[in-house]
Specification:
Elements (H helix, E strand, L loop, with lengths): L6 H5 L1 H5 L11 H30 L3 H25 L4 H7 L12 H10 L4 H7 L3 H7 L4 H11 L6 H4 L11 H12 L5 H32 L11 H7 L6 H9 L1
């Protein structure tokens, strides 16, 4: 009965608030756990919205997609802000927590990888790491958000080769001159292609916020552990610096140089 629903029961707060299990007596471990748990919840919302936006783009229903993509950008701001909270940990604070983390690492976040995959960032080594997760296997069999966007360009009459449209979904995206040419036409004549122009800018927003998240991650790790290796054997700051060079929608960046 709806009348029996309370704030706590509707949100399942008993389970959520009992889901923090520090392994040490370190004061800052609670901060460390909650920041990462909250980030996973924001990622869950992002995936929910991106999946629906992809379907809307596939069906050429761009106005609903715009709302969903704008919401993801706002959620990404919350993810970015989480680094500001976590960065209140000092190296000493983290040194008391780190021995209890074992081989666990944010590198292992399936939801983070799913967000990369749905946007089109499908690196073979990351695919291999998470391919045992059913949701990841299912996602890799589907066109990415950018695949559906490029298919829409073709459906709207832009000359996109079949080799681009029929590529393997699990493979990384290769920059396409034909796709870049389509975006050049759209950006040079926005009033003739206004909804596609707006879609492009919504995608640029996603990429922009994703890169800000990556940069925040880099600077927070640098601030707390310097250039030590990360948990789980990752390369730490060195790896994160390399990731900053990766892009999801290369043609939407290169078009700015062409214009």
């Amino acid at each position: 009965m709806a009348g029996d629903v309370t704030y706590a029961s509707y949100l399942d707060l008993d389970r959520i608030l009992a889901a923090q299990h520090p392994c040490s007596d370190a004061h800052d471990e609670m901060l460390f756990i909650i920041v990462h748990q909250a980030s996973e919840l924001w990622l869950k919302l992002c995936l929910h919205e991106l999946d629906a936006a992809r379907e809307a783009i596939r069906d050429d229903r761009l106005r609903p997609a715009f709302k969903m993509l704008a919401r993801v950008a706002r959620a990404q701001e919350q993810l970015i802000q989480s680094w500001n909270v976590l960065s209140t940990m000092t190296p000493h604070d983290y040194s008391l927590v780190r021995p209890h983390l074992g081989t666990s690492s944010g590198f292992q976040s399936a939801q983070y990888r799913l967000m990369e995959f749905i946007l089109g960032g499908r690196k073979p080594d990351m695919v291999t790491m998470h391919e045992a997760v059913p949701e990841v296997r299912a996602e890799l069999a589907r066109p990415s958000l950018y695949d559906e966007t490029v298919r829409l360009l073709a459906a709207r009459g832009f000359a996109i080769p079949g080799t681009v449209l029929d590529r393997e979904h699990g493979e990384p995206w290769d920059k396409s001159e034909a796709v870049e040419a389509a975006w050049v036409e759209i950006y040079r004549n926005p009033h003739e292609h206004w909804d596609l122009y707006e879609l492009a800018e919504k995608l640029v927003d996603l990429e922009y916020h994703f890169q800000r998240w990556r940069f925040g991650h880099l600077k927070t790790v640098e601030r707390i552990i310097g250039f030590k290796r990360g948990t789980g054997g990752t390369a730490g700051v060195g790896y994160l610096e390399g990731v900053l060079k990766e892009v999801f929608f290369p043609e939407l960046l290169s078009v700015r140089t062409v214009l």
